[in-house]
Design a protein that fits this description.
The protein has about 160 residues and is mainly alpha-helical. The protein has helices at about 10-20, 50-60, 85-90, 90-115, 120-160; strands spanning about 20-25, 30, 40. Strand 2 (about 30) and strand 3 form a beta hairpin.
Length: about 160
């Protein structure tokens, strides 16, 4: 975490050299850690490590981008082991499919328990509630878009 401690890109490079890194200036700045065989271009470390991005972070105009949280995977169906050709041909696949199905069943049970869904009727009512909420959100979005379009026309008329 040197970037918060330095006041310029050049000071950062000087501190890296003092820590034993070799710096190779050029179109793209490269560095090599002690014991590392090849130089590594800073830009290959990611968008936050290009020279421009580092300069912006030092100046305080940019913060390191936070990693986006991994999206939860959607619904994954169970594998029909009885009718699966792969399972018949491969004992390993069959074993994997059994474990996969058990994990999916456990996830389903956890979801139902967390959402207090004990009967099929509860599930149906929750689906209907969510469909109604989705419809309301879509209507609100349409209204907001209409207002935005109206305001854009007003702004255009006022500015000309």
């Amino acid at each position: 975490a040197l970037i918060p401690q330095v006041s310029s890109f050049e000071e950062l490079l000087t501190r890296l050299q003092a820590a034993g890194y070799e710096i190779k200036p050029g179109k793209y700045v490269s560095c090599r850690a002690p014991g590392q065989e090849r130089f590594t271009r800073l830009k290959t470390l990611g968008a936050d490590y290009t020279e421009e991005a580092i300069r912006e972070r030092i100046a305080g105009r940019r913060t390191k981008a936070a990693k986006a949280p991994r999206e939860q995977r959607g619904v994954s169906l169970l594998i029909d082991i009885e009718n699966s050709i792969k399972a018949a041909q491969s004992r390993g696949y069959e074993q994997w499919a059994k474990i996969h199905n058990l994990k999916q069943a456990a996830k389903t049970m956890n979801f139902l328990t967390e959402n207090k869904i004990e009967q099929y009727a509860d599930l149906v009512s929750r689906i209907e509630e969510m469909a109604a909420e989705s419809g309301q959100a879509a209507d609100a979005l349409k209204n907001a878009e209409k207002r935005l379009a109206d305001m854009a026309v007003l702004i255009k008329n006022v500015s000309t």
